[in-house]
Write a structure and sequence with these properties.
Blueprint lengths: L4 E2 L11 H17 L9 H15 L3 E5 L5 E5 L2 H6 L4 E2 L6 H24 L5
Antiparallel strand pairs: 1-4, 2-3
């Protein structure tokens, strides 16, 4: 099934920069990671909670930008980034925190098991 999205309800979208549009794409795909199909005033806290937890395991909810000094800087995506995209809707089913946590714990366990297997594999040159 394709991932469909609508950002026509996002405020101030006509003034978005290229960086804002890149973040939009990031949050569109992010709806699948957090199992929340839209960004609203009412669910900002839940979005942030799930983003932070997901990032702990998968290091997904951050972006890299080149700073004024030419160095690459890691930027954590947070509440201010989310607020820009209030009104974004995607065809992702919103799940309860309990259901999402169950899926998240299973993903974290799988990731942990992979990390252990990789650490125990002999290094070949």
């Amino acid at each position: 099934m394709p991932l469909n999205f609508d950002y026509s309800r996002c405020v101030d979208r006509e003034n978005w920069t290229d960086a804002d549009r890149a973040e939009l794409e990031f949050f569109i795909w992010g709806t699948m990671a957090v199992d929340i199909g839209e960004i609203t005033d009412d669910n900002l806290e839940e979005w942030l909670f799930r983003m932070r937890l997901f990032d702990m395991v998968h290091e997904h909810f951050h972006i890299y930008r080149v700073g004024d000094d030419g160095k690459t800087v890691r930027t954590e995506l947070g509440i201010d980034h989310l607020r820009k995209f209030i009104g974004l809707r995607c065809n992702v089913t919103t799940t309860t925190r309990a259901k999402w946590m169950k899926r998240f714990v299973a993903m974290a366990e799988d990731q942990g098991n992979r990390e252990v297997r990789w650490a125990l594999e002999p290094v070949t040159a």
